[in-house]
Design goal:
There is one protein chain. It is built from 9 helices and 13 strands. The strands form 5 sheets. The chain has a 4-stranded parallel sheet with strand order 9-2-1-13, covered by helices on one side. Strands 10-11-12 form a 3-stranded antiparallel sheet, with no helix packed on it. It is 39% helix and 25% strand.
């Protein structure tokens, strides 16, 4: 008899977990609070367009991940050539920036303020040797206050939250240049410090990012899994040190479902 697994939360992480377990032969129940599956990794239709709530490209440097996406999406895994632009002070700049464009389009006073701010930050870090812990610390050290506020702070707030509470690792892994020195070198010589962070291509599902979740959900159902939406978790029940069941409420009423394993992704 197949072992029973309950997965709580049907964002991309929960769906992928339920799919992986169902592929291994587990009897899976996936529970989701909302009516729609996928969380931010979902798409919606507007007129004749498919729009994404959150992620809008697929790229990873982790071994095997890109091949897995291609396996899931098949012929619907499109290869897209990347073209980046940076909107700065009301102007659209190519990214990585070109020195001529920067000289023409960025006010000289803004460049001067960034340079002075970085010099102050460099002197301060040399004297205090402050430990870099947060996303904000990382960019203040490498770029100074003015460039940090201009380039990085608002992006962090928009995508992840308070940059003071975000990990330094996030900033380091998601940014192709660690400091203003490296940015200047790349602008002048046209090089890349971390080409894997700013690759020239990425993958994209033909019918929007939600297609990834849709494909995984179809596989879960084919493998005999059950997916329930609009569910409120009431309790995770233990017997000694072992979880034995999950109690939840849906439109049909209250249920208690036994499980050998419970995975929460919420």
């Amino acid at each position: 008899m197949a072992r029973k697994a309950i997965v709580i939360g049907a964002g991309i992480t929960g769906i992928a977990t339920a799919w992986a377990l169902s592929e291994k032969g587990y009897s899976v129940t996936l529970l989701e609070k909302n009516a729609q599956l996928g969380g931010f990794a979902a798409s919606f239709k507007h007129k004749n367009y498919i729009l994404d709530y959150g992620p809008h490209k697929i790229y990873s440097t982790l071994p095997g991940i890109m091949n897995k996406y291609k396996e899931i999406l098949g012929d619907d895994c499109l290869v897209v050539k990347k073209k980046n632009s940076l909107r700065l002070l009301g102007k659209y700049l190519s990214f990585p920036p070109k020195i001529g464009q920067m000289a023409m389009d960025i006010p000289k006073m803004a460049i001067l303020r960034c340079g002075l701010s970085f010099s102050y930050s460099l002197a301060q870090n040399t004297l205090t040797k402050k430990k870099v812990i947060s996303y904000e610390d990382y960019f203040l050290k490498g770029f100074g206050m003015q460039a940090y506020k201009l380039l990085f702070e608002q992006y962090a707030w928009k995508v992840w939250g308070d940059p003071k509470t975000l990990s330094e690792e996030l900033a380091r892994k998601r940014t192709p240049v660690p400091s203003i020195f490296h940015l200047a070198k790349n602008v002048i010589f046209g090089t890349k410090d971390k080409p894997e962070v700013s690759a020239d291509i990425f993958y994209y599902p033909k019918y929007g990012i939600g297609q990834v979740c849709d494909k995984l959900v179809d596989s879960i159902k084919r493998n005999g899994g059950t997916i329930k939406t609009e569910v409120d978790i009431i309790a995770i029940n233990k017997e000694g040190d072992k979880i034995k069941s999950v109690t939840y409420q849906d439109k049909q009423g209250k249920h208690e479902e036994k499980a050998d394993f419970v995975v929460s992704t919420i």
